[in-house]
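G., the chain you wanted modeled:
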Amino acid sequence: MTDSSATLEQWLERLMHQHSSAIDLGLERVGEVARRLGLLDQPLAPRVISVAGTNGKGSTVAMLDACARACGLTSVCYTSPHLLRYNERVRINGLEVSDAALVAAFERIEQARLAEPAISLSYFETGTLAAALIIRQQAPDIAILEVGLGGRLDAVNIFDADVAVVTTIALDHADYLGTDISVIGREKAGIMRSGGAAVLGSRTLPDSVSAYAEQIGMRVVATLGTTFDYAAGVAGLDWHGINAEGQQCHLEQLAQPQLPLDNAASALQALMLAGIEPSQAQICRAFESLSLPGRMQRIGRWRLDVAHNPHAAGWVARRLASEPVPQGRLALLAMLGDKDANSVVAELAPVIDGWVCATIEGERGRSAATLAERVAAEGGQVFFEASSVTDALTWIDKNEALADWEVLVCGSFVTVAAALEWLNKRSQGVGG
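Predicted structure as tokens:
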């Protein structure tokens, strides 16, 4: 029986511990509960776009959503993980979903999964079904779904997408996806559907992605650098690609978003293939007002980015290399134990003048001392080893010698979440 009085926080705590493993890839269990809920009887929405990839998924989803809404469409987005509130994972026309809507969805899912035979679901699987129930209830013009991990066996993949976007392929989550880039590409391409449309949003995807698209008979495959592309200049962003009928499209002097331009170009191409053709004015309105927490987010002298693998760290380093630094640039780095810290440090090292390393506690955590060893191995200078991200932020804030330095906070969603909470309290005069 379900507890109708449980709060969202109580539900999330329960979901965190109800399944045998935090990550359990496969579609059989979650697909059966979706069937019991009637979620597989018809498409989730008139247009569904799914986004998979190693990096750039959140940015692509954010730009898809902003442009769709600028065109007057209603939308629901599902993303993960969240930074501060679970409600961030489901956004209805740009606004976080309510606690009440999530709790109602969890209650329905609990009833369905406990029907004989009972089925165990992971935290992510339950959250994915909750998002789908909310999408059905809202009946938006477009649903935009971010794939969690991999693609083929991710819970999001029980839902068919009209347009499948693959952003980038790089090494991450090796314990689940392995270290063979070709195999990883095949897994992420698994979100494609025969007869559908695909957007390949990187110039360096492994051949396995396009090979799979050809194998299953995609209606159209649009590839960055061939089918669609962009040029960035002083007058703005120029983009060209194709629409749903295969006709050439051109958009000129677009506002440049503060997010990766490959992702912006891919979002525009995906919308076109979904039958949505934004005007120059609509795109400018969407991009000019767009910001995404934790993606090169600037708060005073603090720069926050969730980069936690070498590919993402390389993009951050290139962005920072193009910006002037008045005094110096400090990196506050805290990473999970299963991430490639050596390569992340190596990517960032050319644009960092000093380091503060912080411990992330927990089963997947990593100590500041082990991070400091990796920084030192790259020739970096470690100013402080902190017992937590909060302690690191406080130490930096109180160090007068660093008062004029820019501070990059990165390494994990956990790291950036802790920084956002600390900065929020600091701005309100609490703690610090």
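The chain has two domains: 8-288, 297-427.

Shout if anything looks off.
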